[in-house]
Amino acid sequence: MARAAKRTFRCTECGWTAPKWVGRCGDCQSWGTVEEVSAPVAGGVTPVRSGTPARPIAEIDVEAAQASPTGLAELDRVLGGGVVPGGVLLLAGEPGVGKSTLLLEVAARYAALGPVLYVTGEESAGQVRLRAERVGALAPKLYLAAETSLAALAGHVDEVAPRLLVVDSVQTMSAPDVPGVPGGVTQVREVAAGLIRLAKERNIATVLVGHVTKDGSIAGPRVLEHLVDVVLQFEGDRHSQLRMLRAVKNRYGPTDEIGCFELTDSGIVGLPDPSGLFLTRRTEPVPGTCVTVTVEGRRPLIAEVQALVAPTALPQPRRATSGLDSARVAMVLAVLEKRVNLRMGAADVYTSTVGGVRLVEPSVDLALALALAGSHTDLALPRGMVAIGEVGLAGDVRVVSGLQRRLLEAQRLGFTTAIVPADADDPVQVEGISTVGVSDLGQALLTAFPELRR
């Protein structure tokens, strides 16, 4: 007699299993995510002959898995060459950041290689057509469909036979005979599984748009990120035109690259050299500013840190930051107070970056400290100077990674002097730029502001 399948309960978020139902997952601690699944007992699986037998790995054809360029160099840079046939890419970002505009541009450019199907579940076909006309994304082989049913989407795929499929967005699609509302955990999981199965069987490069929650994570079950091949995060401040694309997961390329774009009224444009966006063009040095070189992925970027230290009449001085990590700003302020005796406890402190860039790398500490000290003493840094280094709680200036690349980028943009961490074991020399090694914050202040020696 065949043995009955035993009851098993699995968390839809992390995959944790339990022999009985519980309200809270014992692994990820999520509430209401444990559902019953049917699983055969051990030893109850009957072997069947596969239609595609296993072959030696050296005999596998790799030509069909080669990446195809999308036409946007910055996107190809992040993907590692382009989209892979049969690969599934998930693009997530906040509302209004420009996800649909980016993918419409990609679809129009990729249509030069073959049919492209763009399925929208959030807008009507007419609305997408108007945007495509505005950004110049009209192409003869770009097909557009407004659908929210997975079955209807599969029908369009049969008719068009696209090389690239764009689904905007996966949270608006619904699968037939699956309980739950569109965007729910069960629906998103089943829709994503169906789209991935369709992409693998038809060898179609597929791009899914994903919504994000209030804390910035991708909406839906966590298993969605595990199922897809590539996860991209599209970031940007809605008050700025700069947009950055980061790879969170990439089975076909690196995850330490970023792409820079500029969102304009006429579409989205790649920025192969975005360093100039993060600098203020002025004729004379101003106290409270310092230029540094940060590394985003493998790309060095010149950025400017600004600080304003002003007396206050409030019992509790203000501390405001924009584009910087507030915890690191508070730490640098404490180090300046304790180690170099710059009293800022009775002053308002405002810190920000130029161009809307967000700097969270520890190598920005030294530039932040010099900007704060310059504003406090009303002294300006010399022209053509950059500062790179991490500041420790003891007031020491620590070595950062990729110093050679950072100095080469500074030299390329015309900077002549760099204050860097003292590293006697491996001195860095770049032609055209003189480096001054400092071991602590006090030495850095005397190097940047010679007037303090008097």
UniProtKB/TrEMBL annotation:
The keyword Secreted does not apply. Residues 64-212 form the RecA family profile domain. The keyword Metal-binding applies. It comes from the Bacteria. InterPro entries: AAA+_ATPase, DNA_repair_RadA, Lon_proteolytic, P-loop_NTPase, RecA_ATP-bd, Ribosomal_Su5_D2-typ_SF, Ribsml_uS5_D2-typ_fold_subgr, Rubredoxin_2. Pfam families: AAA_25, Lon_C, Zn_ribbon_LapB. A motif (RadA KNRFG motif) lies at residues 249-253. Residues 348-454 are annotated as: Lon-protease-like. Keywords: ATP-binding, DNA damage, DNA repair, DNA-binding, Hydrolase, Metal-binding, Nucleotide-binding, Stress response, Zinc, Zinc-finger. DNA-dependent ATPase involved in processing of recombination intermediates, plays a role in repairing DNA breaks. Stimulates the branch migration of RecA-mediated strand transfer reactions, allowing the 3' invading strand to extend heteroduplex DNA faster. Binds ssDNA in the presence of ADP but not other nucleotides, has ATPase activity that is stimulated by ssDNA and various branched DNA structures, but inhibited by SSB. Does not have RecA's homology-searching function. Plays a role in repairing double-strand DNA breaks, probably involving stabilizing or processing branched DNA or blocked replication forks. PANTHER family: DNA REPAIR PROTEIN RADA, DNA REPAIR PROTEIN RADA-LIKE PROTEIN. The middle region has homology to RecA with ATPase motifs including the RadA KNRFG motif, while the C-terminus is homologous to Lon protease. Belongs to the RecA family. RadA subfamily. This is DNA repair protein RadA. It comes from Thermobifida alba.
